[in-house]
Amino acid sequence: MNRLGNILTPRLGLAVLALVLAAAPFGFANPYQYDVAIHVLINALVAVGLNLLIGYAGQISLGHAGFFGLGAYVTAILSANYGWPVLLSIPAALVVVGVLAFLVARPILRLSGHYLAMATLGLGILISIILRTEAGITGGPDGMVAPPLSIAGMNLYSEVYWYALVAVLLVLTVWLALNLIDSPVGRALRAVHGSEVAAQVVGVHTISYKVLIFVVSAVLAGLGGTLTAHYSGFVTPDLANFIYSIEFVTMVVLGGMASTFGAVIGAVILTLLPQFLTGFDDMEMMIFGLILMVVIIFMPRGLIPALTRVLPGVRR
């Protein structure tokens, strides 16, 4: 019976997520609400990938906004400056992000603790500086135009179509994350998180698994960047800003580390909360910080792990 519950609970959660995403548009009254929802889903997609790295592998990254911005710029440059079809420039951007992540992962992931945090922070800042200073390629601080996404010869301008596309991609990302967690790779990642030395003793090649999940997480961040670029139609170096890296990490921590659905919930809360605080003018950021502080103090493991104590059937 326990085995059956373990199998059904993630599937049930995935089904509920898909139903919520399918039903949500019926409550949208205008294009602005679609716009906010699209940004929520893109952030959730990035947070799910970052949760694999932080929550399951136990490796901190404060530079994922760099991969987000790099993905946005590579697809914008290829499609706007070189005339690539967007459906080709997006995969090309993900390859570039993945290759960069692979090249830097092995030396960076040999570090741990605050040394690892500082190294990833430096990487993100370096990417941001390059995007800002290489004006001949990136447009510099002013940014550059990103052509619209075209499918079957039709440009996607409508928020309705964009919402449907991003919702499907989020469901697929969550499904892949859940399957990865239940695979031998996921068990190896949890072993690395628990004790890297113990994992090595039992034959787990820890650095290989850390590099793998770092690349997967970076590519998902890059995917979020490419979607943002072609949805908004414009990219600026601010996409790689350090503050966005902190926001992505906060989404994971708020929802609950080592919880895929927690990462989604954290992204929803952290993206929507400022929308409800706009009426407080100068106090907006103070209230925002206070709410986060209260949650972290009273639910240090995040929202979903806190719920599991009350509702044992809730997991992942």
TrEMBL record:
It holds the Pfam family BPD_transp_2. It is found in: Cell inner membrane. The chain crosses the membrane at residues 39-58, 65-84, 90-109, 116-140, 160-181, 211-231, 251-273, 285-304. InterPro entries: ABC_transp_permease, LivM-like. It is a multi-pass membrane protein. It comes from the Bacteria. The keyword Transmembrane helix applies. Keywords: Cell membrane, Membrane, Transmembrane, Transmembrane helix. This is Branched-chain amino acid ABC transporter permease. It comes from Salinisphaera aquimarina. The lineage of its organism: Bacteria, Pseudomonadati, Pseudomonadota, Gammaproteobacteria, Salinisphaerales.
